[in-house]
Amino acid sequence: MEQSLIDHVGRGEWLDLAKDEAVDEDAMRSWGKSRTCQARLIRDILLGRLAANPDPHGLRLRGARITGRLDLENLTTDVNLELKDCFLEEGLIAGDARLFRVVLTGCRLEHPTEAPLNAIRLSCSGLFLSEAVIRGHTEAGAASLLGAHIGRLECDGAILRNDSGPALAADGLQVDQAMLLRGLTAVGNSGSGAISLVGAHIGRLECDGAILGNDSGPALAADDLQVDQDMYLRNGFTAIGDGEGSAIRLLGAHIGSRLECDGAILGNDSGPALAADGLQVDEAMYLRGSTATGGGEYGEIRLTCIGR
């Protein structure tokens, strides 16, 4: 199978090991040797060691079990990497890497002690995690994108869970175009938030239909967030947090166009549902049909010194 992958990279073709079969967690865990690829082989291909003249389509693999941690740390390559419906037993590390386009749609990433997706300070034109399942057990986060710089980030329908920290740790993240979290499920256990976007700078942020939960702090912590265009938390977007810090924190945030929360459900038994002191929204803020349930002295929604 590994030699076949090298040959397909040279031709720019998909190596689809799943074909028409349904791919779920049980199927992934049952895959044997004929469906197994060593992580170091993928690294060597991206470095040009095994496929001297890779097609511009790059490495395209579906339905494989990848053994070992896929280590792309500090790697620089312009070879496209596309993994679909693959099982990364020990996850992926891409800290300080400079990559072209990274696709992990439908993949499952795990690691017993480290962040299954560790991509701090990653630079790439696009990172695609739609329908991926990432489960962590670490304070570092199930997915860590601290200080990363990404052209476009898509996480539609992804499931991020962490029983010992944030589901997505992305403080200082920069996304030039759009960050799409539509239909995402993110469940964390951290005082820093299920999703943490403190100090992030994003072109457009869409979270329609996402479900965020945290029993130990905010569902979404986004103090000093800057969104150049619109920010959408609509269509059943749900954020349930715990603690005085609120379910959603947007302290000092700046939204360049509109903030729309139509039909959102926000809840916190121990503090505000939404805390947005110093929030600046250049055009309009909509809360039509939203439900906010809070506790404590500050009420459900706190908008002290809001700018418009």
Structural topology:
Layout: H1 2-11, E1 15-16, H2 25-30, E2 36-38, H3 39-46, E3 59-62, E4 65-67, E5 70-71, E6 81-84, E7 87-88, E8 92-93, E9 101-103, E10 108-110, E11 117-118, E12 123-128, E13 133-136, E14 143-144, E15 149-154, E16 159-162, E17 168-169, E18 174-180, E19 185-188, E20 195-196, E21 201-206, E22 211-214, E23 220-221, E24 226-227, E25 231-232, E26 238-241, E27 248-249, E28 254-255, E29 258-260, E30 265-268, E31 274-275, E32 280-281, E33 284-286, E34 291-293, E35 301-302
Parallel strand pairs: 1-3, 2-4, 3-6, 4-7, 5-8, 6-9, 7-10, 8-11, 9-12, 10-13, 11-14, 12-15, 13-16, 14-17, 15-18, 16-19, 17-20, 18-21, 19-22, 20-23, 21-24, 21-25, 22-26, 23-27, 24-28, 25-29, 26-30, 27-31, 28-32, 29-33, 30-34, 31-35
Walkthrough of the structure:
This protein is mainly beta and 308 residues long. The protein contains three helices and 35 strands. The longest helix is centred in the first third of the chain and has 10 residues, at 2-11. It is elongated.
